[in-house]
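Data card: per-record layout.
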Amino acid sequence: MSSLNPQRTIDELKELRALTGDENGAQRIAWTETWAKARAWLRAKMEQLPVSIETDEAGNVWTTLKGESDDVLIIGGHMDSVPNGGWLDGCLNVLAGLEVIRRIASEGKPPVTVRLVDWADEEGARFGRSLLGSSAASGTLNPDDVRDLKDKDGIRLEDALANYDVSLDMATDAHRQLQNAKAYLELHIEQGPVLEGLDLPLGVVLGTVGVERHSIKFVGQEAHSGSTPMDRRKDALGGVSKLHLDVRQIAKAHKGVGTVGRVVTHPGIVTAVVGQAEMTLDQRHLDPNELAAMLNEAKAASERIAAEENIEVSWSRLWQIQPLPFHPDLIELCDEAIIETVGVSHRLPSGPLHDAAEMVRAGVPTIMLFVQSLRGISHNKIEDTKEEHLLQCVEALDKLATKTMAWMRK
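The structure for this 410-residue chain is written out next.
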């Protein structure tokens, strides 16, 4: 009989919420006292198991259950939250992983070494740099890019990390933790409405989507709103308005997503035709060819619109990351684990990035499992998942771990 106790995970999630939340939600922002308190609480639970615990150079906490083989199965998550965050985002991953390790440890020495990692600063809530700990471990972090980032109080990232005995220049030495890593598993709330819309509790994540993020500037001619005839105007806002609508249609046609999140106009007064308008564009897709097509179509649309409006357009890239598909074998194993748990599975991409993306970049075979989010809402105190689904996701993660250990030994 399995010693897995998914109810204990729910109880511990509630315990953590009482310890580190308030009436506005979770307050476990990385590199703060509340986050450190959450980690100390977690460590006390880990210490009851036959494991070793260490904190690496980037501040990630590793709990290791030694196995018959040095090959490593990693289960990952993060204890940090956004300000006024939800009670499940990140910590569900860690506490479900803890329960799986308890079950494995109760059955003696496992066939492979199993490690649970609590990644440091997944959210980037304080300094704006997400996936800090996992990118240090994967080797994609450049310390010089982040050391001078400041929080709202003007404190530098490098100085805040030093308070927690993390030296930014040593952080990428955390890469040694991935030696012998043969698989990485991560459970997460979906944070979106897809599973709820299908009335399904669990889903297999195919990978994290690629992102193209640009700033687009239209330049026309400022002019008086009363004395300039409509057919003589060079209205820069016309470019933004038309392109915004095209961006939505392009995304729908390619089954991706496209978002204009910010628009700034100049001179920005009620009595002037807009002479300059800037917009941000965020496009995402799991297929790199579709993402490239979406970007090309948006650029072509902007040129066409600029000609129609008798204005000029220019683009500058803000950020980009390629799609990161998960391992095909692990996708199948995750599908099996979900079907054995709840009878039906669904495959979907992840729009948000997760630490799992950095494990793909490090070359570790990776898979994620999603559990339904009520109302599709996350990063908010009303974030929630049915308890029945929470029980099921712990069980599915446990089955996935067992299947993955057998796959690693083939």
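Known properties of this structure: The first helix runs from residue 6 to 20. The domain at 210-321 is CATH 3.30.70.360 (Alpha-Beta Plaits).

See the next section for split statistics.
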